[in-house]
Design brief:
With 194 residues, the chain is α+β, with helices and mostly antiparallel strands. The protein has one domain: Cyclic Phosphodiesterase, Chain: A (Alpha-Beta Complex), CATH 3.90.1140.10. Helices cover 28% and strands 37% of the residues.
């Protein structure tokens, strides 16, 4: 199975992201950039990835559940969704994202998960954790001037805030010509804030 660990979003945040995506799509439809290979993520598929696992066997699935189940619960924290940007940058974008502002607890949670899973044979992360919510991907590395201008105008947009009290193991099911389906397989709760 193809899997990843992520924080799911509350409906309020998901609805705001869908509204913003629709705004960007309408604005792009009125420009010459409308056919520049933008693939929008369906709003129900937007999540905050903590670790991508790729294809995992049944054995690794069970070891992962046991390993993460034995971890001490993390302390709850709040996350703010704010602004927009591109990876790697706006000159050669691969990903268009909504920004995530969070306390150090978010990066610590991702690091703890990575360290725990490294102990059972998953490859450690080599890239710095950069929390974001993917809104679109691009078929080719080419500037997206209209989208870039819109994103810069909205760089300080406040899209809402939510509390992180749990994360999930998701299965990703891919089908040709259809959006990916994400199924929650297991919940890992946090602890109460002291």
């Amino acid at each position: 199975m193809r899997a990843f660990l992520a924080i799911d979003l509350p409906n309020k945040i998901r609805e705001e992201l869908a509204r913003r995506q629709a705004q960007f799509q309408r604005a792009l439809a009125a420009t010459s950039d409308r056919d520049r290979g933008v693939r929008w993520v369906h709003p129900e598929g937007i999540h905050l990835t903590l670790k991508f696992l790729g294809e995992i066997s049944d054995e690794k699935f069970h070891r992962l559940i046991e390993q993460l189940g034995n971890q001490a619960p993390f302390e709850e924290f709040s996350v703010k969704v704010k602004g927009f940007g591109f990876f790697p940058d706006d000159r050669r974008p691969r990903v268009f994202w909504a920004g995530v502002e969070a306390p150090a607890a978010l990066a610590q949670l991702a690091a703890q998960i990575d360290a725990a899973l490294t102990l059972i044979g998953f490859a450690p992360e080599t890239r710095t954790f950069k929390p974001h919510l993917t809104l679109a991907r691009f078929n080719r590395l080419a500037p997206q001037p209209a989208l870039t201008n819109l994103a810069h105008q909205e760089r300080d947009a406040d899209l809402g805030q939510f509390k992180v009290a749990e994360f999930y193991l998701f299965e990703s099911r891919l089908a040709r010509g259809a959006p990916a389906q994400y199924l929650k397989l297991r919940r890992f709760p946090g602890g109460e804030k002291v």
